[in-house]
Design a protein that fits this description.
about 180 residues, mainly beta, 5-stranded mixed β-sheet, 4-stranded mixed β-sheet, 18 strands, about 50% strand, rod-shaped
């Protein structure tokens, strides 16, 4: 119920965009002349340790709407709804080329991703589908680690190679990623 006789004024809350795994403080802009009560509904979006506090901190697990019901002593109130949007930045990057010539630049086919992404089972195949390289627990974000362009200890010639990896993301999902890279001499 919205009442013009309510002893508070509340501003609409803005929608929120947040990266998965981050928490956010929700703080409604309320001016009041008497006591008011708060009731947050974060169901299916996030958990909070206090659904009756004025200011809450949430750790959203998915996108959706959060509701806040504010009432004064007489039961007059206002219901606010706003959207929390979760961004899942799960980009995994493997370069499209590298040059294993021991010059200290791009000497390894390395994997780059955010620190909270786990990469498993990195494999590289030649153009005929032969397994050239395999690492079950590759180090990420280190350009001095990865495939060094050799097979059975011998440097390979310039060519295009196919890579595949399994990435495990912070929300518990996994994905098989693949692509091509060119070994340059």
């Amino acid at each position: 119920e919205i009442s013009s006789s309510a002893n508070f004024d509340i501003q609409e809350m803005s929608d929120v965009t947040i990266e998965y795994g981050q928490s956010i403080e929700l703080k409604p802009d309320i001016s009041q002349t008497g006591p008011v009560s708060y009731k947050w509904n974060t169901i299916n979006v996030a958990k909070t340790n206090c659904d009756t506090c004025k200011i809450i901190e949430i750790l959203p697990s998915q996108s959706g709407y959060i509701w806040l019901n504010v009432k004064d002593e007489q039961g007059c109130g206002k219901l606010l709804k706003f959207n929390v949007r979760i961004i899942k930045d799960y980009h995994v990057y493997v370069p499209t080329g590298f040059s294993p010539n021991a010059d200290g630049v791009n000497d390894f086919l390395s994997i780059f991703a955010k620190d909270n992404i786990i990469v498993q089972d990195f494999v590289v195949f030649d153009q005929w589908g032969e397994l050239i390289y395999q690492n079950n627990d590759p180090e990420i974000n280190n350009d001095s680690k990865g495939w060094d362009g050799t097979f059975k200890g011998k440097p390979l010639n310039t060519g295009v190679f196919v890579w595949m990896l399994k990435a495990k993301f912070p929300d518990g999902t996994s994905e098989i990623l693949s692509g091509e890279t060119t070994l340059l001499k």
